Amino acid sequence: MESRPASSQPLVQHPDPSPEPQPSPLVLHTSLFVYAVALALGLLAGWINQKVDDPLLTALCVVAFSMFMGVWKQQRPWRWLLLVWIGVPLVLAYYQFVVRWPHNRGEVAAAFLQVLAASAGAHGGHFLRQAIERVFLHEDE
C-alpha cells in the first residue's frame, strides 16, 4: 500500500468558482411574458382551427404566429414551435372533453401535424432575424 502525503492540502487545487450572476426579476418577468404571448397565440390558432374548421387556415396562422415569435426572440426557436403548436391540440381536447364537441380522426391528425407548420415558422423566423441583423445592422469594420 502506498501512503498519501501527510499534507492537509489536496494535490490539485481548483479555484473557487465565482457565483453565477442572478437574473433580475424584471428579466424573469419579461421572459414569462414572452412565453405567455407564445402560448396565447397558440391557443388563438387552436380556436381558429375549431371555429373555422379549415386546416390550411390553421396552418397559416401557426406559421405566422411561430414566425413572429422566431423573429421577436430568435434564441432557441424550438420553444416557440412547441408553445405555438401545443395550443391547437389543447383547444381540440378542450372542445372534445369539456364542450363535448366530437372530432373525427382526420381533425385530430391535422391538429398534431400542425407541428410541421410551427417548425417551419419558428425556424424561418429565426433565420429571417439573422438575415435582417446581417443586412441592416451590419457594423463596418
Features:
141 residues, mainly alpha
Order of helices and strands: HHHHH
The first-to-last residue Cα distance is 63 Å
Helix proportion of residues, in percent?
55-70%
Estimated share of beta-strand residues: under 5%
Which stretches are low in confidence, meaning pLDDT under 50 for 5 or more residues running? none
Give the radius of gyration.
Answer: 24 Å
Structural category: mainly alpha
So what's the overall shape? globular
Q: What does it look like?
A:
With 141 residues, this protein is an all-alpha fold. The chain has one domain (27-136). It contains five helices and no strands. The longest helix is centred in the C-terminal third of the chain and has 32 residues, at 105-136.
